[in-house]
Amino acid sequence: MNVDPNVDQWIGKSESSNERIAAFPANAMAATLNQCGLIYKDGDPLPHLWHWLYFLQVFNLEDKGYDGHPKLGGFLPPLELPRRMWAGSRLKFLAPMHIGAQLNKTSIIKAVTQKTGRSGALAFVTVLHQVHDGETLCIEEEHDIVYREKNNADVPEVLPFMAPSEWAFSKHINPDPVLLFRYSALTFNGHRIHYDQPFCTGTEGYQGLVVHGPLMATMLLDLVRFELPHAVVCAFEFRALAPVFETDEFSIHGQPNADGKTINLWVRRDDGTLAIQAQATIK
Q1: CATH placement of domain 10-282
Q2: What is the rounded CA–CA span in Å between residue 265 and residue 256?
């Protein structure tokens, strides 16, 4: 591949925004996840990973790229690779965020890596996000974004990893387009792979609408929250390994480790494929 040295100029680029953490997005998220009876109000702590409902990038429709995301070259580097995906994140939960609080988020491009893989040219962008409540750092997150070439039917399919066969707790999920639409709306995510089936199957080469990686990551930590209500999660990381589609059901699983400090978490497709691998650190 042709490595573009100019993208290194984006390393260290930053942006910042302030937002009051309103109750509506949290209550809409609870309803979307069928968490009946949960009503959030000012002063309540925001569940882990629900901060992804806030500090959203608002841009004019004329500034969108072909896939529905904003065009590259603003905050993110202008990589000439059209397919993008949330590859994973590593988070530290340092202090609670509360509904009603006025918070500040700063994002810094930490690294840009270009390479060639089995599917062709690849680029990885790592963005460091920090959310503060005044002088208090609430969340520190490293977010990995992967960029790929256009879909190529001639590229051999990568054999998937199989999910573990033993777990302590789990939940079965039956996704549908309404779930995907709601989460896209709540996160102002215009990526067409989540709602535009002709684009998803014809242009991108997927077998159906793609379930959001961060949505499934949120489901994993919510599973811990309800199964282990006394556990305090202080860190979380996840990595997307295979796509999940609304045409198939999937399940989320958890298995505490013997150390009493970590919980292995994963998303299993109905064909047994390990779709997301994650780990929560508790205290």
Answers
A1: 3.10.129.10
A2: 9
